[in-house]
Amino acid sequence: MVEEKPVAEEKVDWSAYFDHIKVVCPWAYAAWKKDEIKITEWSGNYEPLGKYQAIVYIVPNYNRRRLKKLCKKLDTSYEYEFLWSEPRHGDYGAPMHIIIQQCRRKLFDLRFDQGYYNDLLIE
Length: 123
What we know:
By secondary structure, the protein is of the alpha+beta class. It has one domain. The chain contains four helices and four strands.
């Protein structure tokens, strides 16, 4: 009998993924290179970010609808922002079904510095 690897250990080229999404998330690749992104399997609860800029939870056996629902449920935290992605999620879809946890304040600051909110600012 062949022992199955946990989902988090499957062969995914995370470096290539984070490099590819630089267009929409310019800080992700740099954080990945500095070992500031943790990849782990979803256990049913999120954890503190600690030293990480983001935690990517692999969510196996969730279809897109269920993944979006889980993300919406989690994204009520004042401290953290939760995003989701999956392979069919546009040009920058993740290689598998994932939930991404980031510091809400830091993400706001990064987006602000990149001009993400420029069209909302009144001059």
